[in-house]
Amino acid sequence: VLTVLDTLRPISTPEGIELTLRLAGPAPRAVAWVIDLILRLIALWLFSLILMPLGGLGMGLVLIAWFFLEWLFPAVCEVQLDGATPGKKMMGLAVVHDDGTPVGWNAALTRNLLRAVDFLPLLYGMGLMAMLINRDFKRLGDLVAGTLVVYRDAPRRTAGIAKAPPLAPPVALALADQRAVLDFCERAASLTAERAEELAEIATPLVGNAHGAPALRRMMQIANYLIGRPAQ
Question: Considering only CA atoms, which of 40, 34, 29 is closest in space to residue 128?
């Protein structure tokens, strides 16, 4: 099983929301790398067929194409394609920053250029050693770039919360209070309308003097704000 070595890592966003990322271990990442390698070799072979008849110019263009495919193409994919090269996408993986945000150019270029070090002494020996002794399965490039490789299907808390225009809470909420709001709004659909509205009215600091449906709607708006859902 490819996910035997994988773990869950909880992180807190700057807004105080707790998320859980499922880290990808060496085995699925190795499979993704092999897939990417095969695709790069196929692309390089096709470039060679087209460009080699041009002689010296063609050879120079093939070398440029190889450099791009080997060192720059993975970074472009990770920034422009939701953190995933074709191999990572097929394995359901993605590269993100340590705080779970999408990877940027600096981090993507750093982690990919440092593959030259991770590859030493042979077949990513240094990278594999670093991953095995690091709780987040980071190779050296990830350590320097501040990145993680995670599964794209990381558990999310947002699916059960009805969409509503986001509204910032009128008072500061501790993390436990935020969880209580999210839990209530996730479960509101399983309650009768009357019971959900009755419970929403209890949260006076959040809903003020609102009663009934307006109180429940206010709670839903605050929950949408807490999960970072954009305004419609």
Answer: 29
Bridge partners, 148 (sequence order): 96
pLDDT along the chain (232 residues), means of 10: 54 63 91 96 94 90 94 95 94 92 94 94 90 92 95 61 89 85 87 90 92 93 87 68
52: DSSP letter: G
How many Å apart are CA 188 and CA 190, to the nearest integer? 5
Q: Which two tokens stand for residue 73?
A: 């193409």
- In the chain, the amino acid numbered 80 is Q
Tokens describing residue 64: 């440029």
| Helices (runs of H) and strands (runs of E) counted in the chain | 12, 4
Beta carbons within 8 Å of 149's beta carbon, 6+ residues apart: 23, 24, 29, 88, 93, 94, 95, 137, 142
What pTM value is reported for the model? 0.64
* Lookup: tokens for 3: 């996910």
Q: Are 100 and 92 in contact (CB under 8 A)?
A: no
Other CB atoms within 10 A of residue 91 CB = 23
Give the Cα separation of 229 and 109 in Å (integer).
Answer: 29
How far is the C-alpha of 222 from the C-alpha of 197, rounded, in Å? 15
Asked if 137 and 23 touch (Cβ cutoff 8 Å), the reply is yes
Between CA 153 and CA 167 the distance in angstroms is 27
